[in-house]
Amino acid sequence: MASSRSQVPFEAVKSAVAGSATYASGGRFGPRRQRDFELLLLDAGEMRVTIDGAPQQVKAGQAILLKPGHVESFDITGNDVTRHNWVAVQIDKRSLPGEDAGEPPDVWPVSPEMNKLVELILTVQNELPSDGAIMRSLGAAVLRLQPDADGMAAEGTDASPASPAVERALAWIRSHYGKEIKLSDLAWEAGVTPEHLVRLFNKYEQETPIHYVWRYRSERAVELLEHTGLPAAEIARQCGFKTPHHFSRTLKQITGRTPSEIRRASWNGEEL
Fold it and tell me: Are 174 and 227 within one domain?
């Protein structure tokens, strides 16, 4: 069963704000008494969060939900810098049963959905009031995406592990796939070394970054072949293929069909 915080109604959310922070290894801050529900998502590094005297270790790719009324302190325990994003959601405390805030916090893998939601909040909050309808809705969504007691997201999706660096790389690929993409440029956008990005992609996507690029280009090209009348050469250009011949060869390798075969089958109503 999902906890009552995942059932917080929109009307109970008073405001939502977000931010990012970077700490050097060995840093420490606190103690402080938490006022809101605050979601902490580690992008890199590691920290020990001590709540009412009980320590919790949080690593990169994990999150912890801090709850109002508790005394917290934070120790940066990793060897390198620690970066994290946070979202603080202020709610009317009368909307929650008293025992909810008293539950011990869980540490759990950050889902791709949560990463995208937090990035959205960080992007739009400078243009919106924290107590306005949009920010309050986003704050309510943060609480609803918390995993429930069975390890599933409150909305019913799998809370699968995700790497913030991989998510940044995927977002950049999806908006730049029509241009030349080098591994070094992709790693720069992701904020990691090329070698580390390859390891992360192999772990989370089960393929290399460059293989993902060509597979993504091929998927977009198939969509254009099926739903537009653009010549194959133009589709190849728009999707970042080097030449029409390279386009045809790559599509054959990935889909088992040439561009003309894909278009003909689609336009004849066949299932691909």
Answer: yes
